[in-house]
Amino acid sequence: MRFGLVGTYGSVAQTVRLAQEAEAHGWDGFFTWDGISVGPLDTWDPWTLLGALAVSTQRIRLGAMVFPLARRRPWKVARESLTVDHLSGGRLVLPVGLGAVDDGGFARVSGEATTARQRAERLDDALAILERAWSGEVFSYAGHHHTVTDLQFLPRPVQRPRVPVWPVAAWPSERSMGRAARWDGVLPQSRTSRGALTPDDIRALVAWVTDRRRDLAAEEPERHLGPFDVVVEGVLPSGTSAAADHVAALADAGATWWVESRWDPSRDTPQELLRVARQGPPRLGPAPG
Length: 289
Hints:
Layout: E1 2-6, H1 12-24, E2 29-32, H2 46-56, E3 61-64, E4 67-68, H3 74-87, E5 94-97, H4 104-107, H5 116-133, E6 139-142, E7 147-151, E8 165-171, H6 174-181, E9 185-190, H7 199-219, E10 229-234, H8 240-253, E11 257-260, H9 270-279
Parallel strand pairs: 1-2, 1-11, 2-3, 4-5, 5-8, 8-9, 9-10, 10-11
Antiparallel strand pairs: 6-7
InterPro entries: Luciferase-like_dom, Luciferase-like_sf, SsuD_RutA_monooxygenase
Domain Luciferase-like: 7-204
GO molecular function: alkanesulfonate monooxygenase activity
């Protein structure tokens, strides 16, 4: 099990420091977030911030929770992701999703996709273009909403064959989960309830993904299907023992990441996030000595 922390609140300087402290205290990943206009929040461009984080840290995985590719130009994302991948020495991961329409970058401007179907089609187009762009070869593509002709992106990513992609998926939706199974991980959400997924849910999800990827390997033998991450977000219960027990049960069910995601502005101040970072992630297994 690996552990990540989302830098939800704070200035640019506070966020950079938070990432450095998270790295120093044993966290495996640090994530910013991708928003345009989400209420009265200080909001930073994720790619600019990730560039700063890439050169301010040495080991920790970096990404954003999550990139709504439906409102981003995929050819620009290709260039941005290549740049951060190289700046970080191959530590970028790309969590992606449809995007939330309560962001003014969707709902309060003209011309953006707002229905779930439109956003899903644009997401699939973007992922197809990114995969081709990261190959370093000249490519063309005609999708639902994007057509490109004879593009080439160099250099190739540090990570081969591509920057890892983690789509958000609704469990147990076969269509949504089917998209994630084609890539490198999944950020699962419950389709049937607003509650967190249980260890039994994760166990069933892992079994489903394993079967689906076995089928994909037979159907598309040329497709790269490497290790697959199951990334669970939430807020750990208070208390060292309770937190360790919580993530241990998820790890036993097949989850590979816990990402601490704190979104309560009345509680999760920059100072509180710094305290969480310095506390470090839960320790699994028997106590030393």
